[in-house]
Fold:
Amino acid sequence: MSNKFLSTTSAFLLSTSMLVADVPKVTVDIAPVHSLVSSVMEGVGKPDLIMPAGASPHEYQLKPSNAKSLEDADVVFWIGEDLTPWLENGLESLAKNASKTSLLGVDGIELLSFREGALFEAHDHGDHDDHDDHDDHDDHDDHDHGKKKHDDHDDHDDHDDHEGHAHGEHDPHAWLSPKIAKVWLNSIAAKLSEVDPDNAATYFSNAKSARDNIDALMSEVNSILDPIREKKFVVFHDAYQYFEKDFGISASGAISLGDASDPSPARLAEIRKRVVDEAVECVLAEPQYKQGLVKAVVEGTNANTAVIDPLGVKLETGPSLYENLIRNLAINLAKCF
Structure:
């Protein structure tokens, strides 16, 4: 083997390793965010996922492999401490040199306050197309300065159904709004482009394609939900109001709080009474949580049950997970009636 061949091969391997090294190492918290980031990074690299399928984001504990991923990260995208407060210390101690983006802090989204009590009143969906025009914002960089539009939620003392549980200021399940996901795609592309300008064109092109796919997805989901839009249903935990707002539907109540903690007997009785009194037709369970609580609510009633999954537990991780997750929510909800 000639020295010239060895020299050329070594130079090629060195240049290839340098190219690979230049791609930022990206870590994300939950599978839906991993999917959005994967879409933006497609053809460039793949992000690491902290929380495995089947785990609850409200109570997960970091594993050694997660710690290594955070230590190696150049960029971290996470929902925020309202969803995963256990991750905040890890980010501070392990990902000291990483650029960290809390997606709930991104400018241009509307955060919703937690709904109080076990029962929800139907809300007005007349403005549920408010923020369709985010496609024009191609530079939603890492905004963590609180200028987002949100509902004030400072008056917790007047509510008596928190069952002793403390939660963050806002409902953190914002990934279930495809409209918000579109804004996040821009922010993800902008942050990755800042860290890795050589691939900026790919990041923004991928983000545009992903936003177009979400537009088509929303039309599909609206068609799926049209036949059941006025039907009454109860969710397992109060995680779906962003989805409800985007698609003009309203849950009648939730068995559990927004963090899926165990409901009190009084809360279960209140939900069951509404199911009976108002002939609620559907009570929704989730794969991560106690099926027995749903059974206790529907037993002896005419309500159907179905399983919906806000995290994509059984879906393959990657770019397609987000669209499949939102589509499956609609399909399984519609099948419940």
